[in-house]
Amino acid sequence: MTACDNCAVRDQAICCSLNPAEREQFARIGRRMTIPKGQSIIWEGDESVVVANVVEGAMKLSISTADGREQIVGVVQPADFIGRPFGAKTGHNVTALTKSSVCVFPRTEFDRFAGDHPTLGQTLLKKTLEDLDRARSWMLLLGRKSAPEKIATFLLDMASRAPGSQVDRFNLSLNRQQIADVLGVTIETVSRQLNQLKREGIIALPSRDGIEILDREALQDMAGTA
Amino acid sequence: MTACDNCAVRDQAICCSLNPAEREQFARIGRRMTIPKGQSIIWEGDESVVVANVVEGAMKLSISTADGREQIVGVVQPADFIGRPFGAKTGHNVTALTKSSVCVFPRTEFDRFAGDHPTLGQTLLKKTLEDLDRARSWMLLLGRKSAPEKIATFLLDMASRAPGSQVDRFNLSLNRQQIADVLGVTIETVSRQLNQLKREGIIALPSRDGIEILDREALQDMAGTA
DNA sequence: CGCGGATTTGACCTACGTCAACACCCGTGG
DNA sequence: CCACGGGTGTTGACGTAGGTCAAATCCGCG
Question: Is the pLDDT score of B168 beyond 80?
Answer without folding.
Answer: yes
